[in-house]
Each structure stands twice: as C-alpha cells, then as structure tokens.
Amino acid sequence: MLINFTYVKRDTPIHRLNPRVKFAVLFLFGLSAAQTSNFWLILLGFIGACFYYSAARLTWSETRKPWLFIFFLGFILVFLNYFISGGAVLQGADMSHQHAIFSVPFIRFSWHAPFITGSPLPMTVESVVFMVTQALRIVGIAMLAIPIPYTIDPALFGATFREMGLGDKVAYAIDLSFRFLPTTVRNFTTTLDAQRARGFEVEKLRGGLFSKVARLAPMIVPVVIGSIVEAEDIINAMELRCFGVTKRTWLIDLHTTGRNRALLWLCLIAFVLITLLDILGFFFASGPLHVLHTQGLPRFLAP
Predict the structure, then answer these.
(1) Tens of pLDDT, residues 43-55
(2) Most buried one in 28, 210, 273, 287, CB count within 10 A?
(3) DSSP 73-125
(4) Are the C-beta atoms of residues 97 and 126 closer than 8 Å to each other?
(5) Cβ distance 46 to 185 under 8 Å?
(6) Are 182 and 5 in contact (CB under 8 A)?
(7) 38 close to 296: Cβ distance less than 8 angstroms
(8) Rounded Cα distance, 22 and 42, in Å
(9) Average pLDDT, stretch 194-199?
C-alpha cells in the first residue's frame, strides 16, 4: 500500500557518515543540479552519485518500491512532458540553431477548427541531450535521497535536525513523522492479515468508487483509530515531561569526522563553482571551455 522506508543496519561508509552531512550533500547536489542543464556537469554529478549510492550497499529487493516510483515519475517528467509540450520545454538549449535527427508523428491543439491537427514533432540533438540530462539529474538526486532513510538510524533523526539549527518542536515533529509511516504500514499489514483470517477478501471488491470505499471500512477504521490512539499516547507522554516549556537536551551527540568535512567541502565548492558559472551565463561559446556553454554539446554532434 505504502512505500515503507526501513532502516537497514550495515557497516558501510554511508552508514558511518554523519546524518547532517547526508542531508547537506543532498541539498547542495539538488541546488547545483537545478542551476544547470549542461550535460557534462550533470554527468559528472551523476557519476559521483553512483559512487555514493554503491557505497551504501543497498540491494534492489530493499529499495525496489522507491526506485519504481522514481522511474515512473522520471518517465512522466522527461518524456511525456516533452511530447505534451510539443518539444517547447528545453531549458538551457539553443533553440535558434537546432540539429534535426528525425521526426515522429504527433498531434497539436489549436484554438480554431478542427482544434486537433496532425503535425510532426522533430527530434533534435538538443532535445535528446536535454531529455538525457533531465533523466540523469532525477536519478542522481534519487541516488542521494533514497539512502537517507535506509542508512540513518530512526533514533538519530531528532538530534540530526536539532543540530542543523531547527527548534526542538520542529526537530521532534520530523523525527515522529519518520517513525509514523513504518508504524502505520505495520498496523495496516496486521489488520489486513486479521481481516483475511476472518474471510474478508480485499482483491474481490466490486461496485463503484463509493461502494468500494464503504466495503474497505473494516480495513480503514481500525488503522485510523489505532493511529489516533498512539498519537494521543505520545502527546500525553510529552506533556508529562513538560516538552516545549524550556530548551531540551538530547541524549545523542553527533560528531563530524575529517572524512565528513572533506565530502562536505567538496560538495560546497562544486555548488559555488556552478553558481558562479550560472551567474556568468556560461559565456564560453568557443575555446577549450566550450563544454561549459549551455548544454555543452560536442562539436561532432552539433557542428
């Protein structure tokens, strides 16, 4: 029903990495990738993300559901978006001198009759490189985001966000949200097994939308009520401990090692360089730095 992120306890370089550094690397990589459509810069970041993800040693069976969601979302954002927009969405591409490869049959909408007309959609070097760049950007960000819930102990989330500068209430709210989803999935699975033991068949629900929702009451009501009761227990426990009255102290103290600082500085320097290139407008139309111009198309692809 839900994508359940379960912590996988292993001794890997990513597991030993400071949780604050993991979030910082993800934010810096995402902000850097959002500023450029240069193929070579995105490819370089993608290769670094591959090394980062491989160091976590996560198997396909453990991360299959989130990856299927990422692939589905990427297909919609990259390919379907290009066809729906008629090839008009090409950020950072030189639209004045496109190099056509072939055309595919397509339809276009207009404000005049017959409103729908057939029109070929050209596939150019610029559009293909842009779609590949978009796919690498999405998968690269996912390679840094997916290991976070799988490699960080749930007990560290509260202390992580607190030491990142957030308040006690906000940090503890985020900590509870990361714990609430696995608990809800576990309660849903337990309720589903119990109802199946009583003869309730979820796969054979018939009728319309409202009829199916009404028949799912034996599943929804126990899960929702159980979640509310557990939330009230947590609220009562926090009130008994006077949570929010004064500044709290955390039992866990996170330490940053030299390896963590090196990775953080590397990502920070890359972010600053890409930001400077973005401010300068990637003005390298000729010379050895031509690869930093707009999409960075090689000369043999776009002469």
Answers:
(1) 999 999 999 999 9
(2) 28
(3) HHHIIIIIHHHHTTT---TT---SS--EEEEEEEEEE-SSTTSEEEEEEEEEH
(4) no
(5) no
(6) yes
(7) yes
(8) 19
(9) 76
User: What is the token pair recorded at 193?
Assistant: 């097994």
Q: Which of 25, 29, 4, 28 is nearest to 13 (CA)?
A: 25
Token duo for residue 78 = 């990259």
Q: Which two tokens stand for residue 233?
A: 């227990």
Backbone CA torsion sign across 273, 254, 167, 181: positive
pLDDT band at residue 162 using 50, 70 and 90 as cut-offs: confident
Q: Please, is 45 exposed, middle or buried when counting C-beta atoms within 10 Å of its C-beta (0-12, 13-18, 19+)?
A: buried
Contact 268, 28 (CB under 8 A): yes
Tokens 């629900």: give the residue. 205
Round to whole Å and give the CA distance between 89 and 159.
42
Residue ranges per domain, the chain?
Answer: 1-152+256-303, 154-251
For residue 66, give the nearest of 143, 181, 156, 151 by alpha carbon: 143
DSSP 36: -
HEC secondary structure over 221-259: HHHHHHHHHHHHHHHHHHHHCCCCCCCCCCCCCCCCCHH
12 contacts: CB under 8 Å, gap ≥ 6? 55, 56, 57, 151
CB of 264 within 8 A of CB of 21?
yes
Global confidence as pTM? 0.75
Backbone angles phi, psi at 124, to 5 degrees: -110, 170
Could you give the 3-state DSSP secondary structure of residue 292?
helix
CA distances from 98 to 95, 128, 245, 302 (A): 6, 11, 63, 8
Rounded CA-CA distance 95/20 in Å is 41
